[in-house]
Amino acid sequence: MPVPPGNRSLFEELVKYTQQRNFSRGRALHAQIIKTSKFSCVYLANSLVNFYAKCGHLNKAKLVFENIQNKDVVSWNCLINGYSQQGSQQGSIASSFVMELFQCMRAENILPNAHTYSGVFTAASNLQNAFAGQQVHAIAVKTSSFCDVFVGSSLVNVYCKAGLLEDARKVFDRMPEKNSVSWATMISGYATQRMAVEALGIFESIRKEDDSVNEFVLTSVLSGLVVPEFVDSGKQIHCLSVKNGLLEIVSVANALVTMYAKCGNLDDALRTFELSGDKNSITWSAMITGYAQSGDSHKALKLFSNMHFNEIKPSEFTLVGVLNACSDIAALEGGKQVHNYLLKSGYDSQIYILTALVDMYAKCGSTVDARKGFDHLQKADIVLWTSMIGGYVQNGENEEALCLYGKMQGQGIFPNELTMTGVIKACSNLAALEQGKQVHARTIKYGLSQEVSIGSSLSTMYAKCGSLKDGNFVFRRMPLRDIMSWNAMISGLAQNGYGKEALELFEEMLAEGTKPDYVTFVNILSACSHMGLVERGQAYFKMMSNDFSIVPRVEHYACMVDILSRAGKLNEAKEFIESANDDHGMCLWRILLSACRNYHNYELGAHAGEKLMELGSQESSAYVLLSGIYTAMGRLEDVERVRRLMKLRGVSKEPGCSWIELKSRVHVFVVGDQMHPQIGDTRATIWRLSKQMKDEVYQPSPDLASGTERPEQQSDSFTKTVNGNLKQFVPLSYALNMENPDINVPESPPLPPPPPPQQEEPDHKRLKMSTTSDDDEATTTTTTKKQRYKRRKIAIFFAYCGVGYQGMQKNPGAKTIEGELEEVLFQSGAVPEQDRGVPKRYDWARSARTDKGVSAVGQVVSGRFYIDPPGLVERLNSNLPAQIRVFGYRRVTGSFNAKKFCDRRRYVYLIPVFALDSSSHRDRESVLASLGSGSELVKCFECSERGRKVVGVMGKRTYQLGMSSYAENAILKSNGGVDNTNSESIEEEKLNTDESANVNQDCVGNGVLENVVEAEGIVQNENTDSNSNVGLFNDSKVVGEEEGVNNGEEKPPMGSEFCYGEKEKERFNRILKHYVGSHNFHNFTTRTKAEDPAARRYIISFDANTVFNVEGIEFVKCEVVGQSFMLHQIRKMIGLAVAVMRNCASESLIETALQKDVNITVPTAPEVGLYLDECLFTSYNQKWKDSHEELSMKGYEKEAENFKMKHIYSHIASTEHKEGVVALWLHSLNHRNYPDLSYGNKLDSSAAKNPELCAANNDDDTTADNNSSEVTEMAE
Length: 1276
What we know:
Elements: H1 5-20, H2 23-35, H3 42-54, H4 58-66, H5 73-85, H6 87-90, H7 92-107, H8 114-127, H9 130-142, H10 149-161, H11 165-174, H12 180-192, H13 196-209, H14 215-223, H15 231-243, H16 250-262, H17 266-275, H18 281-293, H19 297-309, H20 316-328, H21 332-345, H22 351-363, H23 367-376, H24 382-394, H25 398-410, H26 417-429, H27 433-445, H28 452-464, H29 468-477, H30 483-495, H31 499-511, H32 518-531, H33 534-546, H34 554-566, H35 570-579, H36 587-598, H37 602-614, H38 620-633, H39 636-648, E1 657-662, E2 665-670, H40 679-695, H41 717-724, H42 726-739, E3 768-772, E4 791-800, H43 817-827, E5 845-846, E6 855-866, H44 872-879, E7 884-891, E8 904-912, H45 924-930, H46 958-961, H47 965-974, H48 981-991, H49 996-1005, H50 1008-1023, E9 1045-1046, E10 1049-1050, H51 1062-1073, E11 1077-1080, E12 1096-1110, E13 1113-1122, H52 1127-1141, H53 1148-1153, E14 1170-1176, H54 1178-1183, H55 1197-1219, H56 1221-1227, H57 1245-1248, H58 1251-1275
Parallel strand pairs: 6-14
Antiparallel strand pairs: 1-2, 1-3, 4-6, 4-7, 5-6, 8-13, 8-14, 9-10, 11-12, 12-13
């Protein structure tokens, strides 16, 4: 039915806007249609639905569709196709809505046509819902719409995406008409399922029926050629694309590059890549991924760099390929750069990129960063879980892998074969047989096939755990075995003493046609070594290169040396080593050295040992063995030389370690360790066994390491042997003691009292014992067990007094708290030898940095440490000095970092109360200027400008002592013989020029001159004593003072009357409150500009409410809490606050100093009173409150308070007593040294009421020139 003539123009215009995707003009036309009341025309209404759908506004299209009164099939088709075409972008919701629309359409008896089925089948393919596709297929057959080519092609696509290729092929073969889309869809379905032969068959059929092959068909068939066997077919298709002129199409060129790269033909891939004229991100991604998958990661990274220089933005697939390249070569720094780049590019939210990132960090050994990325994702998929577990296993963190697997099970995530393979490998590395059996049961429960990956891992696990019967059972039940499966079983037999069975299994493998690799021959040669089969081992060594073209590696040479050495053919072994073509390093000479020790061939052993010394061996066993050989030869000078060389090269002997599993518990013993609860009983059992062996006349061979023995020493040789092999006796002795706890034990030498034994007695079970030591005889196939202690991420709480240290910071060559703690962690066994001095390896982080001399009570550091056996805190404190105390530790998450997770920090500054007294410890000029006035300032004789100390007169006013300023000079000069005449006498003469007559008359009238004379006499008498600098006024009294009167008048009250009362507290807290909030502290920060973000600081609280007495000095406790600080900022804040409190500056100066555009100099308080009180982890505690312990000082309050009183408070008080640090600083707190204290402001009203301050300021102006040098020296 044609469009009505009156609506034709609107219809044509709407079709034009739809083709142009012109949304604004289309909406305007929609408004015109509504205004002219022409919406009732179904043609216009359907066109509007199609317009909004094509423009991507599906909600508006749906709204228009619902307002159509008489819907026809075109109305439904417009909306259905609109939603189905958006399905890949909008997700499954749009496709599900299409299926609902189709049901509604059928409910209204609207008969669908071919376009309807095309849209519905597209939605079903997006959902990969084969069942829905089959239902619609049945309706299409009933409505006779199946013959349409679009319907058939869409249906083929549904079955292909659902993996039902047989049904897809049936539909494809029954299609009466096929187009290029039909052919390309069927080929693509086969290619997706890696069915290259079938895909090529379809491609041949299309060429026979229609020679016009387009780009869609070519890209589909090329995508299925992903193995080297089909590279020739790919080359033929390449030629066809050139012949048909399709190579210029970028999609064809990309498919060819991908095909060559996946087939391993990188030269042709690179040639095609270079000849491609129009390269896009897919072209570059294909080449980069090809290099990465072929193991040529360096070229992949170089190509990515070229791509970046060519200003081509990479896709997410490119970045995944680059990250995989970084993973393969462990390029951690390069991976971090790519990580930074993808963050800037906005790819950080895509799951497959994050999975590649986690895999990269894990394979590069940075499991901490990998775990951060893993924890960042709220919904991690199975690929990410598998990558994280595999990363832990690859880096030897097997316990963490098992813990993560347990968490995965707790969240109900179903593992795949790769996941279970990683978990089984973790059990294998730990020799955890029981856990391995449980994982094996899980694989059966999950229905995972026992084929190559899982079967090989299981057989390896059982073999390493010594359960060869179970390993063989798994091996025999594997439906298909590859070379890894054979190697796992052969290695297990060889390592467990079944050499004959290992060789038989090798012959069986050859009989089945499996080609051995180099690992196979390592296992076979190892079996020959243990069985003493020299000739057979030599035959296998020749077979390796002659029959299988395998080039011998150092492992094979080591096995051959071991075979000859065990058989006693030491000279042949030496000749074999010298004839070896491979760069064997030190491994072969080490094996020969051990054999020479066993066969007492000292000359050849010395030759082998000297070879090792020349090569710079770092194995302690080589030095020990060579030293023992020289001792046996009587060459004591060479013994000393070897020992010096060992010390010079920093070679240290790792302690032996043994463990035994008993009643599902692993008991670990380390040489020199006394921490096991039953160590006393175990040593007693060792003594019983050794006595029984000695009573049965057992004579061990002498130990070469201890040298030859004189006859009088031979009686003790047995004890040496037992002690030297204690690592082997301890687990067995412990097990025997636990199996027979009531057995009588002979009297043994006195032992340290052991801790109380455990109450639980183990059942009688099969014992599993393992031993490791670097002095054991070297064999190339025996796997050295790792120490079974677990590294745990912990946060350590500790305190320290900062005196004598350069702070808690990195300062190479200086004595720091951080360096002290790092060394003690190593000495206490928390850090292994290889990580000593490299804190990055164990994720070292501190919560706060402190400067020189600054103390701390709530300091926290984090890292991965060995916390077993129990007693880590005691071991740390026993190795630390008394001024450093560890309180304890808490287990934390793997991503925890003490610095990054610390929300805020609380610092405390102890300021003496006298520092807040505006009249105490004033500078000399202010005091002298105030003499004779109504309110004289306090002159402090206890800490003069030179820092000399005179005990007993602190805080007394001049008139209270009955002295004039001249008497003050006399005392100051006599105090230690300090001569201040050049400066002080000149000062006094200048100051008193106009007032000398009045002052002298006052002194005479009050009887002061007599007191001055007597005081000078006292000074002279005291100077004759050897201790003139101390106790000057302790043994003598000022005349007139002892009677309590002064010239017949009552004596004024003694000392200053200042105290830190409520009024003073309110004022000081008001001053400190100015700092609270977010401010620019550039005036309080050294070398930081106002524009620098580091100048911004946020202070949560700042108050001073507590006063306490320490060693006779009252202190005010100033507490400041904030996010982060530079410690000199706190000192400057305290310095300015004290200056304001002492009326040296106005209170408004603080607000002025916090302004961004003002630059002033503020005083800095001494560092001695500052300490870190606590680090707070509020956000961390809130997030992990359900699974981890709270990180706080709760539980340590009493210990912390005792430490503060004993070390920190006493140090601050004693320093003030001895050196007068704060008092000397107060002398320099004046406008001459800090002219900015009067910056831009008048003195406030409180300062105006103190005339002595004004007099001091005037005096400063008149005497500044004459005394500048002295004042500068005094301030310093």
